[in-house]
Design goal:
Blueprint lengths: L1 H6 L2 E4 L3 E6 L10 E6 L6 H21 L8 E6 L8 H14 L9
Parallel strand pairs: 3-4
Antiparallel strand pairs: 1-2, 2-4
C-alpha cells in the first residue's frame, strides 16, 4: 500500500535510474527507507541483482561521503537496463545529480 502511494508522488528520472520519493505518515525519521527495484523484463536474476548491488553501493557511498540523502523521505529506486553495463563512477555521478535535482538533499560537502 505504501509502495503504491509512493509511486504516485514525485519522481526524478534519467536513462539509468528512476527515483520515486515522498513522505509517509508513519515513517521513522531516524532510518533511511529506500527500496531498489528492477523489472523482470531487464533480464535474468543475475543481471537484475547486479544492477541492484551497484545502486546499493552507490547509495552507501553517497551516505558516507556526503550524507546527502534526506532521511525524512522514503525512496524507491528503479534500476534500468542501461545501468548494467555502465561504470560505477558514471552511475555515481548520475545518481548524485538525481538526488540534487530533488531539492530534498542536505548540503553537499566535498
Amino acid at each position: 500500500e505504501d509502495f503504491k502511494d509512493l509511486l504516485k508522488k514525485k519522481k526524478v528520472s534519467n536513462k539509468y535510474i528512476t527515483i520515486f520519493f515522498g513522505t509517509l505518515k508513519n515513517k521513522n525519521n531516524n532510518k533511511l527507507n529506500i527500496s531498489f527495484v528492477t523489472k523482470k523484463k531487464i533480464g535474468n536474476a543475475v543481471k537484475r541483482n547486479k544492477i541492484k548491488r551497484k545502486l546499493k553501493s552507490i547509495v552507501q557511498k553517497l551516505l558516507k561521503i556526503n550524507s546527502a540523502i534526506n532521511l525524512n523521505y522514503v525512496y524507491v529506486i528503479f534500476g534500468k537496463e542501461k545501468a548494467y553495463k555502465e561504470y560505477h563512477d558514471s552511475l555515481y555521478e548520475k545518481m548524485k545529480k538525481g538526488f540534487k535535482r530533488m531539492d530534498v538533499v542536505k548540503q553537499w560537502k566535498f
